[in-house]
């Protein structure tokens, strides 16, 4: 077979030995297990937990893992935590059917065109009228 493929016999058998192995290594198995746990914690939090909280939850469950490892796996999966807003932005919507009080002072908020300019002398001089 090595002559047919025009490769060395040692190279052929090394390649054949490597391709037969389909089992996961210890590191690959740990990564797969952590990935499943990270996805579960992220889903349970409603998608809000990031790597610090998930790492803390995993450590509380007796899993030895660092925050950077969780962050790396989350980035590979495409997960990210979010910070929910602490308040909702609300705007005032005027009710068109509401009754408004009459303007008894007759205020005028429109001061004319924007190109018009008013000046005032704020300096006052006291005048002695006794002389």
Automatic annotation (TrEMBL):
InterPro entries: HTH-like_dom (IPR025948), Transposase_IS3/IS150/IS904 (IPR050900)
Regions that span the bilayer: none
Every HTH-like domain range: 32-85
Protein name (record): HTH-like domain-containing protein
């Amino acid at each position: 077979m090595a002559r047919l493929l025009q490769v060395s016999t040692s190279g052929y058998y090394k390649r054949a030995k490597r391709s037969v192995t389909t089992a996961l290594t210890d590191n690959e198995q740990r990564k797969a297990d952590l990935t499943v746990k990270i996805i579960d914690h992220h889903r349970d939090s409603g998608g809000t937990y990031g790597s610090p909280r998930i790492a803390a939850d995993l450590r509380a469950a007796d899993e030895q893992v660092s925050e950077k490892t969780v962050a790396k796996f989350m980035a590979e999966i495409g997960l990210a935590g979010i910070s929910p807003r602490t308040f909702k932005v609300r705007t005032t919507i005027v009710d068109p059917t509401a009754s408004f009080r009459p303007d008894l002072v007759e205020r005028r908020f429109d001061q004319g065109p924007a190109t018009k300019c008013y000046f005032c002398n704020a300096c006052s001089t006291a005048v002695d009228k006794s002389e």
